[in-house]
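Write out the 3D structure for:
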Amino acid sequence: MKIEIGQSAPEFALFNTEKNKVSLSDYKGKNVVLLFFPLAFSGVCTKELCSMRDDMAKYNGMNAAILGVSIDSLFTLGRFKQENLLEFDLLSDFNKEVSAMYACLYESFAFEMRGVSKRSAFVIDADGIIRYAEVLESAGDLPNFEAIDECLKGLN
């Protein structure tokens, strides 16, 4: 089911790289930028998440938490987070359930991989409502960071 702006964000709980279960409801009262990305260590994914890292002060100033989600294992994500000095949670959707809930799974990806997360960005407000949704068909494209920023500015 496609995610629509104005609907309640589907609740989820996934493990982060520190092996702690993280729920969307843990962020009630904060805006959340939820980023699904195909695979750790790929060039575009690294560029995307490092861009978020470099702008953390801006997002903190907008009462926004960043959550990155991929189908990689939490161990792979841990190494990726460490090597790129990422200061936000990366969550393992190894079973692909949350990516499916947010309607952002490729049926077929590169090298005949199935069930890889599409690069997607959602802004969820402090009350858990979807305020921005972008699901990209091309893994080579980056989310519209300017639109994400404008959405967050409108929430504060």
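The domain at 28-155 is CATH 3.40.30.10 (Glutaredoxin).
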